[in-house]
Structure formats: C-alpha cells, structure tokens
Amino acid sequence: MTGTVAKAIAEVEQGRRYPVYLLYGDEFLAKEGAKGIIGTLVPPERQSLSVEVVSEDNDLASLPIRLNTLPLFGGVKVVVVYDSKAFLSKFNLQGVAQKSQDAWLAGESERSVRLFLQIVAAAGEGEGFLERAARGEVLDPEWARVLSIERDPEAEAWLREVARTAVADRLAIPEAAGAGLARIYEDSIQRGIPAYASLILTTEVVDERRSLFKRISAAGFVIDCGVRSRRTWDTQMNPEAARAKIREMVSAAGKSIDEEAVASILNRAGSTMRGLVSEMEKLLLYVGARPAIRTADVLEVFRHSREANIFDLTNAVSSRDAGRALLALRSLLTQREPAPLILNVLAGEIRNLIIARSALDRWLDGRLDPAISFETFRVRVLPRLKEPREGDDGSAARLLEMTPFRAYHLLRGASRFSLARLIQGLEAIHETDLTLKTSGHPEALLLEQLLIKICPGG
Asked: What residues contact 358, with CB distance under 8 A and at least 6 apart?
C-alpha cells in the first residue's frame, strides 16, 4: 500500500494497522510523519513502555526480540528505526550524494557527513578514499563511480569539507550498509511480525528495485515524503510541498499571509523542509503579536540566509541590475561563501537564461514584455511553448519541465539580453574562474568586475 501520512493515520483510526511502515524522502518530513503515526498507534502516556527506538548501527540484531516482546500493558508495540541505511545500493548513491550536498548547503553539517559516510560504505570504499577526498585528489573515474553527481566547484567544495570533517573527527565508516542490513529486515517480515506489533522505518533515499522495498510495498504501507521532483537538475523543494508547510505553520500560529509573501518565501526556501521550518519559526517570532505576515517581514527575516542572497544575486543578474547584484555578492562574501561556488551559481543562471533566450527566439518571436504579470504569462504565453516548431532545440521542453514561475522569471530575464551578450557573460565567468586559480588578485574585486561585465548599463 502507498499513500500519505494522513491516509496512514486515518486507516489506523478506522481500525486498520499495517505490520510495517516505510517513510522515505525529506528527512524532517519522514521523521515528523513517523511520530504522527506513532502517536496514533500508541497513546502518549504509554509510549515510554510500548515504543522502542532501535539504533541500526549498534542494536539491529535485537530487532526480532524487540518485535516479539509483548507490551507491558497490552495494546500495540511499536519498534522504530530512523535513518535506515538498508535501502542503499550502488544505483541510488547519486540521490544520497545530492541530499548530503543539500544538507551541507543548508548548514546541517552533521547530517551531511553522516550521509556521505553511508555513500562511502555502500560503494565499498575505505579510509583511503576519505583521505583522498579530504585532499581534493579524487580522480574523475572514482568520482563518477562513487558519487555519480555532476562534478563542479560547489560539489568539490562539499566533498572536501565533509571528508575533512570525517577524517579530523575520526568518524567510522559504517560496517554494514544496503544488502546486509536489508536481510535482517526481510527475515523479520518473512517470518511474520506479531499481530500486536508494527515496525516503522525512515530513510532519505530508496532503491525501489530492492527486494526489501518490494516486500514492504506488498505487506506494509509506504509513504513518499519527498519535497523535490525526481529531475536531477531540480535543487529547490517542490513549491506545493513548501507552500503547504508555510500555510500550515501560519494557520497554526493564528495568522494570515498574502500570496506575495508566500512567493517571497518560496524563492528563498532552499532545498530542505527542516531549513524551511527553521526560517518560518524565525519569521513567526519576528512578526510577534501582529495578525498578518507581510512581504516586508519575509525580506527582513530571510535576507541573511544563504538561499536569499543567492536568489537576490541571480534575480539581479536576470534584471541586469549591477547595483543589486553587487550588494548580494557582498552579503555572500560576508557569509564566507567560496568564490568558486558563487561562480558556479552565476554560470548556472546564465546557462538557464541562454535556454530561455533560445525558447524566446523560436517560440515567442524574440519578444516578451518584462512587465508582464505572471497570470497573463501563465494563460497566454505558457501554452505557446507547447506548440510544435521546426528546428526544435529542446529549449521550450526544458522550460516546461521547470515550475511555471521559474520559466516566467527566466523568460523575463532573457528578454533583457541578446544571445550574444549571454554567451559573452558565460565566457567572462570562465575567464574569471581561470584568473582566480592562477593569480593572486583579490577574489572580491574579480567577482565585482565580473558582475559589471555581465550587467552592463545596469
């Protein structure tokens, strides 16, 4: 059975309980969902005696005994394993690497390192790989085999930092991962979980081809807690998942929020639900007793976050506003954001603007009013991108795979540049990258000069 946390809870309330529950995807949502199911299965006053949390690293061998131990005062016995590594395989290491990188970008260092060590274990690597990664000496074939993610300055900085942390703190590589752990769970499910018990597992990434996943899907209840699409270039949360969490928290606080303020949060939310919740808690504290959350409140609270400054930088570049771009750059440098990562962000934005410019020329006759409203764009412009065109280069398809608001933002930005100017901007980024690596010139000065080249006349 597959479904949502709400559906799983509703079925428990109607008298149907499953022997095993698997929640995977966003780490925060999976754990919160597990706690919601536990709270429905076992009353709070009985949880200390009827709910057991098992460490997969230290105590998994006791799982069968724990499942078969009757609860002291009757009712349901629940055994929980958080952050299981049993669903890892060489086929989903890319997803785990991406989540580790997301956690690193969100400042969740401990979680980022934990996920990285899971990758190392599942790939069959040891301390030698950790030491090479810490020194920045991982060769391309090894990178592709172990990590499977695109190699760029941001990914290289992530790998060096998490590997250095693991080496400096002498953290152990997990001894068992993937198939070895999966067999323990499969044996318990195959023998039959007692009628009075339920096993609850959470994990961030699953390989749906694993027999354990298939067995749980057949006998239990599987919940996808993902907040990102499965497209590898998507780095932000699914807007609807983020929007729902924003509305939920605002409503619980007895406040209101307008759509413009919600959009401002979405643009600055980052890629993890935990990060969004943390920022929303700050926002609610900032608003205090006022009944309504305004856009100005969002801009004030979120202005110091990494995601907000990156959004402000890319938004200013798309608007050809050199002044705002320089302000965002200085904020990122104040936060000690590495220059190679800033260059990577700029290169990604320019590449997306090139895609948008190509679609603009082929599907929209090369023109789009930058002042067009989103609603007008959605009704009148977006359908035109779906029309067949001779010489289709795939640019419209790439835009349609993004969220409508992202496509709207990119096309408006592309209308301010010629294709030649965008290509020149990309070349300037590559030249700046080379200068950073081969000269002793100040990073801040080189990046400022680059922005002025990209945004001439801004």
From this structure: 393, 395, 419
Query: 333-390: per-residue pLDDT in tens?
Result: 887 788 888 888 898 899 899 999 999 999 999 999 988 888 899 899 999 999 988 8
- Count of C-beta atoms within a 10 Å radius of residue 427: 12
Q: What CATH number should be reported for the domain whose range is 2-86+178-225?
A: 3.40.50.300
In this structure, which CATH number among 3.40.50.720, 3.60.110.10, 1.10.8.60, 3.30.930.10 belongs to the domain 239-302?
Answer: 1.10.8.60
Chain centroid to CA 358: how far? 28
Topology given in CATH for the domain delimited by 311-454: Zinc Finger, Delta Prime; domain 3 (1.20.272)
Rg (CA), the chain: 24
End-to-end Cα separation, the chain, in angstroms: 55
Cβ(48)–Cβ(73) below 8 Å: no
Q: Which of 48-57, 180-189, 305-314, 381-390 shows the lowest mean pLDDT across its residues?
A: 305-314
Distance CA 155, CA 303 (A): 24
**26 DSSP assignment:** S
Residue ranges of the chain assigned to CATH 1.20.272.10 = 311-454
124 and 180 Cβ atoms separated by less than 8 Å: no
What pTM value is reported for the model? 0.58
